[in-house]
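Figure 3 (text version): structure tokens given as input.
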């Protein structure tokens, strides 16, 4: 082999044909293709059954109607697809089974409706055959879509199809592939508005688009308002299918591709786009007639595309902007993105070629202030690309070296099978890793969104609590103001009532006038009969006497008379007025004719010893009742013990004990100072206490004897004070008869 140059770029088909064991490899490949075909047939049948279930659920509104239509639809489906639906029940299996069948078989373009009970999107081949009337911009609805042009009817159908009534729903593409959101998969909310349509709808509804950047962030009532505005301008056109839809490539990522012919658009105007990102606009700025396919005139279509080898199919798909079938594998398509997909929707496989679609501009991301940034899936390294034999370029190089090194045919066959199995395992692991990365990113995004929603709900709840507190405070202030106004109003009413009563009373008086004399005289005339017949109350008698005496003293004659208490002196006097005989005298009689205030009689003068004795006597008179009243406290041994506590003893004893000790000192000091006139020794004070003051343990006879001693001492001091001494006494009670006015005295 020396000197032989081996090219590293040997054509794959020649290299592979030269490998011994090609027959075994072809057999293995044929088995794999047969298994793939069986799987495709099963998938086709499941998808067709799902479409039949979707037609029943969307076109027939009651279980009875679905049961009646089921036999005819099943027969049509069997006729359209011979060999399918062999095991389908002959009668309607019920709503639960139909819902489950629809969810299990929904195609990839409709996966976002999985789990939405009662939701179905009929597809061509299984519809009622009735075309919907034109709606919105004048574009006829696709046959069997169920939209009628009645807003409330279409609202219910659109909500059931798009979100199942969930105002926070996110489209199925962004859920399965979060990175697709940046590529335009922004539909969300109850009506699955894409962000551009949502912003225009907010403006049509007279709302600020910045307040709710995406539909799913807005309250359900706002979404309903935007739907009304969009539907009012465009009808149901924004919810009709466009020529493009989301499909998966071999890496499991969603890509936007043309899968159905474009509908003829309405006349230019408006600015709303179809629900599917990248769909042809049915109305609004930029909407117009789609360009014809290359090489075809108006109203013509091209023939079905012929399958091409993988590399050529990918190149053509990238150049034309639409899928191209791949030769050798039934149902395999090359995408404009460069990837491969196992199956396209039936409506996309026989469509005419179209010019490359303009790249869809990514929809604006939700503002960071209202939604957390999306987490992109972790990038998973892709394995080396395989051909239709599940071998890579490196495998062919290695097999070529192995053959040159002398590996036999069976060994090569075994090596090829091992490499094929390893490549398939790596491919399957790669797909699993991609799915796991997508699931992890989706979970992280959902958690971030849930955390943001929870934080926003907490903020709104706190703001609501603050607003409630403020409203309560304002309501309380308002109640206080109302209460104060009511109080002021009531006070004003009371003053007005009192004034009216006074005016009425003044108007009814016998004697008119507001001066004091007129008021007294009027009172006397009002109650004269009551005084005369004795029916007057005590209060009337008292006031009658006061008014009578006041009038007697009005206008009296002043003069000087002799002071009866001081012969030779004179005092001022007044001759009282006599009132008319028609006014009876008060119960105490009228005032005397002469009123005067005699001077005080001169008291006899005391000598100095008498004055001292009088002072001691006063102290004894004040102390004796206290000693008598508090003697039980003084006789308490406990109180005596507490009083001897150093420094704080006085704080521990009772108030009665303190009063007794003070009265005791007054009494003993008065006795001893009168007797000795000098300083009192401690022994003298103790002896006097034993002689006059009750002590703990004193018997009743001793207590009586000590009380007698105290009275004797007081009597001696009173006698020493002389006849001018007057002991302090309590004031006498007031006379029963009303006294004369201040400064006058009745002369008997």
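Below: residues designed for each position.
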């Amino acid at each position: 082999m020396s000197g032989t140059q081996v090219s590293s770029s040997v054509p794959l088909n020649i290299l592979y044909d030269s490998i011994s064991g090609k027959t075994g490899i072809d057999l293995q490949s044929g088995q794999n293709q047969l298994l793939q075909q069986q799987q495709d047939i099963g998938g086709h049948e499941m998808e067709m059954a799902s479409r039949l279930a979707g037609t029943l659920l969307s076109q027939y509104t009651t279980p009875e109607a679905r049961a009646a239509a089921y036999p005819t639809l099943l027969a049509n489906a069997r006729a359209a697809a011979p060999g399918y639906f062999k095991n389908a029940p002959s009668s309607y299996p019920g709503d639960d089974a139909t819902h489950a069948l629809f969810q299990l078989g929904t195609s990839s373009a409709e996966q976002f409706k999985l789990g939405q009970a009662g939701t179905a999107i009929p597809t061509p081949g299984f519809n009622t055959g009735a075309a919907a009337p034109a709606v919105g911009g004048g574009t006829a609805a696709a046959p069997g879509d169920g939209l009628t042009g009645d807003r409330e009817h279409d609202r219910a159908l659109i909500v059931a199809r798009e979100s199942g009534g969930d105002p926070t729903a996110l489209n199925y593409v962004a859920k399965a592939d979060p990175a697709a959101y940046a590529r335009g998969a922004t539909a969300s909310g109850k009506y699955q508005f894409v962000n551009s349509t949502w912003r225009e709808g907010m403006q049509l509804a007279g709302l600020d688009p910045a307040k709710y950047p995406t539909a799913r962030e807005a309250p359900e009532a706002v979404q309903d308002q935007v739907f009304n505005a969009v539907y009012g301008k465009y009808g149901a056109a924004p919810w009709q299918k466009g020529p493009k839809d989301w499909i998966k490539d071999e890496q499991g990522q969603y890509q936007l591709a043309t899968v159905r012919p474009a509908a003829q658009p309405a006349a230019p105007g408006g600015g709303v786009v179809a629900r599917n990102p990248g769909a042809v606009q049915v109305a609004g700025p930029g909407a117009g007639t789609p360009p014809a396919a290359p090489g075809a005139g108006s109203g013509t279509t091209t023939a079905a595309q012929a399958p091409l080898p993988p590399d050529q199919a990918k190149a053509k798909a990238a150049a034309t902007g639409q899928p191209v079938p791949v030769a050798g594998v039934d149902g395999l398509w090359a995408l404009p993105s460069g990837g491969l997909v196992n199956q396209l929707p039936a409506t996309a496989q026989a469509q005419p070629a179209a010019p490359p679609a303009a790249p869809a501009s990514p929809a604006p991301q939700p503002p960071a202030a209202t939604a957390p940034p999306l987490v992109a899936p972790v990038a998973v390294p892709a394995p080396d690309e395989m051909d239709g034999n599940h071998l890579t370029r490196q495998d062919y190089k290695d097999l070529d070296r192995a053959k040159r090194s002398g590996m036999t045919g069976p060994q090569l066959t075994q090596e090829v099978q091992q490499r094929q199995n390893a490549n398939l395992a790596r491919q399957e692991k790669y797909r699993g890793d991609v799915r796991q990365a997508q699931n992890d990113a989706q979970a992280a995004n959902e958690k971030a969104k849930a955390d943001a929603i929870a934080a926003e709900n907490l903020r709104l709840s706190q703001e609501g609590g603050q607003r409630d507190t403020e409203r309560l405070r304002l309501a309380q202030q308002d109640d206080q103001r109302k209460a104060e106004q009511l109080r002021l109003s009531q006070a004003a009413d009371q003053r007005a009532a009192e004034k009216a009563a006074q005016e009425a009373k003044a108007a009814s008086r016998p004697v008119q006038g507001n001066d004091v004399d007129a008021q007294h005289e009027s009172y006397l005339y009002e109650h004269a009969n009551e005084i005369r017949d004795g029916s007057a109350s005590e209060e009337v008698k008292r006031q009658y006497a006061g008014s009578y005496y006041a009038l007697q003293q009005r206008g009296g004659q002043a003069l000087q008379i002799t002071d009866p208490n001081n012969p030779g002196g004179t005092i001022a006097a007044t001759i009282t007025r006599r009132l008319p005989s028609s006014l009876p005298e008060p119960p105490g009689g009228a005032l005397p004719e002469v009123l005067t205030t005699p001077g005080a009689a001169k008291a006899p003068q005391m000598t100095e010893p008498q004055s001292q004795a009088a002072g001691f006597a006063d102290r004894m008179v004040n102390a004796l009742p206290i000693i008598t009243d508090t003697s039980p406290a003084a006789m308490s041994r406990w109180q005596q013990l507490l009083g001897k506590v150093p420094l704080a003893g006085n704080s521990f004893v009772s108030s009665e004990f303190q009063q007794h000790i003070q009265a005791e000192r007054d009494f003993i000091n008065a006795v001893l100072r009168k007797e000795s006139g000098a300083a009192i020794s401690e022994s003298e004070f103790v002896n006097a206490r034993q002689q006059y003051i009750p002590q703990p343990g004193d018997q009743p006879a001793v207590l009586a004897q000590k009380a007698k001693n105290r009275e004797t001492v007081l009597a001696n001091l009173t006698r020493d004070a002389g006849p001018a001494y007057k002991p302090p006494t309590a004031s006498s009670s007031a006379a029963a008869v009303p006294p004369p006015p201040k400064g006058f005295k009745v002369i008997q």
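The chain has a mean pLDDT of 74.
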